[in-house]
C-alpha cells in the first residue's frame, strides 16, 4: 500500500475540510514543569538495614569465646602476631570512635554494625569502640564488653582488636583494625 496515491476526490474532500484552518501562533516548545525526583531504592535500603540487624548475634561458639585473661584480644587467622603488637602500641592513628555508653545491648549491636560498615565504606583503618567499664550497670559488670568482642569477631571487616591503651580508654574500650579497601 506504500506509495499509493489517494483518489482525487479524497484529496479534494480533505482540502475542503481544512480550508478554514489557521496555524496556531508559535510560542516555542512547551515542556511540562515537573520536579525531577531521584529514584529512592527503598527495598534495597530496607534489605541493608535488615542485613545489618541480622548480621551480628549475641551467640558465639564456646571455643571462640574463651579468653586467657582480662584483656580483649583477637587476631584473624593468617595475620602476623606483630600486627597485634603494633595495634596495642598505637601504631595506627585512631580515625573514628563509637561511644556505646547508655545503650542497651540491642541498640549497641545496631550501632556497632552501622559503625563498622560506615568505617569500611569510608576506608578507615583503625577505630575505637568505647563499651565502658560497667561501673553504672547492674552488678557493676561490663555487660557490653563481651558482647562487643563477640560481635567484632563475626565481622569480616575486622582483622584484629585489642584493649585500648590507658590513654585511649583502657579496659573500657577496644581498638579495632579494619581491612584496607
UniProtKB/TrEMBL annotation:
This is Uncharacterized protein conserved in bacteria. It comes from the Bacteria. Coiled coil: none annotated. Residues 98-179 form the Smr domain. PROSITE patterns: SMR. It holds the Pfam family Smr. Gene3D superfamilies: 3.30.1370.110. SMART domains: SMR. InterPro entries: Smr_dom, Smr_dom_sf.
Amino acid at each position: 500500500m506504500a506509495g499509493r496515491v489517494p483518489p482525487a476526490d479524497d484529496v479534494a474532500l480533505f482540502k475542503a475540510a481544512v480550508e478554514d484552518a489557521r496555524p496556531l501562533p508559535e510560542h516555542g516548545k512547551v515542556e511540562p514543569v515537573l520536579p525531577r525526583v531521584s529514584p529512592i531504592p527503598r527495598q534495597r535500603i530496607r534489605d541493608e538495614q535488615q542485613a545489618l540487624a541480622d548480621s551480628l548475634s549475641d551467640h558465639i561458639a564456646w571455643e571462640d569465646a574463651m579468653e586467657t585473661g582480662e584483656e580483649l584480644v583477637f587476631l584473624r587467622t593468617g595475620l602476623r602476631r606483630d600486627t597485634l603488637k603494633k595495634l596495642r602500641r598505637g601504631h595506627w592513628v585512631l580515625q573514628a570512635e563509637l561511644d556505646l555508653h547508655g545503650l542497651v545491648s540491642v541498640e549497641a549491636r545496631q550501632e556497632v554494625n552501622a559503625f563498622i560498615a560506615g568505617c569500611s565504606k569510608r576506608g578507615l583503618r583503625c577505630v575505637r569502640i568505647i563499651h565502658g567499664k560497667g561501673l553504672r550497670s547492674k552488678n557493676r559488670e561490663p555487660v557490653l564488653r563481651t558482647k562487643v568482642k563477640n560481635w567484632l569477631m563475626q565481622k569480616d571487616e575486622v582483622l584484629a582488636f585489642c584493649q585500648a591503651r590507658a590513654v585511649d580508654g583502657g579496659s573500657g574500650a577496644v581498638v579495632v583494625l579494619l581491612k584496607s579497601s
